[in-house]
Structure formats: structure tokens, C-alpha cells
Amino acid sequence: EPMRVWSLDTNKQVRQLDGHINIKSVCVSPDGKHIVSGSLDMTVRVWSLSTGKQLRQLNGHTAWVRAVCVTPDGKKIVSSSGDETV
To answer: How many Å apart are CA 59 and CA 82, to the nearest integer?
Structure first.
């Protein structure tokens, strides 16, 4: 199940991001350069919006990732999980 990026102007898909399945949360960085995804696989992943390539995989949760968010300055990612950690 890839993530899909759509153009609001044309209503057409402009990018497909493959490799992260069962995604439960997605967030775009404040500068619009990155997408962050959280999944049932207990990982948080960072993607380049311009290329669609995965840049990082963050591990540490012991249950599925419920939510992800990027801080307003774009320097940190906050994630919450079914393991009751943030």
C-alpha cells in the first residue's frame, strides 16, 4: 500500500512513496520538503517529497505508531505509539 501524493491543482497523483505498509499517520514538514509516516510496523519513516525516496527509518516503539508530527521549526519529530510512549 504505497503513500500517494496528489496535486491540489490538477487532482492527479504526482508521486508514489513505496516501502512503508499499514501506515496509520502521515505529516508534512513545515518547509514542505519531507513527509513523515508512522505504521503498524512500529517504525517512523522520513521521506523526501521531491524524490519520493525514504531518507530515514526511526525505530524504538514496541507497538504500532499512532501519530507523527514535525515541530514547527522542522528539527524534531514527535511520535506516539500503542506502547503508551511519546
So the answer is: 14
